[in-house]
Amino acid sequence: MSKLPFQKRNYQLMIIAVLVVAIGFTIMTLDTEPHGFGFLGITLSPIVVLIGFGIGVYAILHTPKQNS
Question: Is the pTM of this model over 0.85?
């Protein structure tokens, strides 16, 4: 039994979450409307960022199955 609180899968999911959040913020910068008030800045990027945060929460709460 590992003494670490997270397993390999938790860290993989957390890395994916960080990448998705980074992609969401990058999408936000691609908006060409003034002050980011276009579809990319107001609708798409917040949805992508929230999905990334959701993956991060799942990565923290996920407990791998014990092989016994």
Answer: yes
Angular region, 35: left φ>0, alpha ψ -120 to 50, beta rest: left
What is the sign of the dihedral through the CA atoms of 2, 63, 58 and 13? Answer: positive
Where do we find the tokens 């060409």?
32
Task: Report the C-alpha gap between 39 and 46 in whole angstroms.
Answer: 10
> pLDDT value at position 18?
98
Concatenating the DSSP letter of every residue in 3-60 gives: -SSS-HHHHHHHHHHHHHHHHHHHHHHT--SGGG-SHIIIIIHHHHHHHHHHHHHHHH
Q: Which two tokens stand for residue 43?
A: 């609708």
